[in-house]
Amino acid sequence: MVIRKHYYVDGRVQGVGFRYRAYYVAQNYGLTGYAVNLDDGRVELEVQGEQALVDSFLDKVEEGHFIRIDSFEARSMPVDPNDNQFYID
Predict the structure, then answer these.
(1) What is the pLDDT of residue 31?
(2) Which residues belong to the active site?
(3) pTM for this model (two decimals)
(4) Which domain holds residue 16?
(5) Nearest CA to 31 among 47, 45, 13, 51?
(6) Interhelix angle for 51-62 vs 18-29, to 10°?
(7) Which of 34, 63, 66, 72 is most buried, judged by most C-beta within 10 A?
(8) Is residue 85 part of a domain?
């Protein structure tokens, strides 16, 4: 089943390649969405794809060097049938 989730991720997530790691994982998993740095030091993400892959997405991203997720907020979003790529903003 395809789902979409919105995340705010806190920790060591800026200046360590977090968004690029998210892009790499999304490409490998066939996920769509986006990643953007926020002024408060967090990263905002939306991720869409098969539920099992979306559910394991952040764990896989955190495997990147120097990345540390301290906490995150997640909420379900309506699936966007027009979303066809993952991008970094």
Answers:
(1) 99
(2) 19, 37
(3) 0.94
(4) 2-79
(5) 47
(6) 150
(7) 34
(8) no
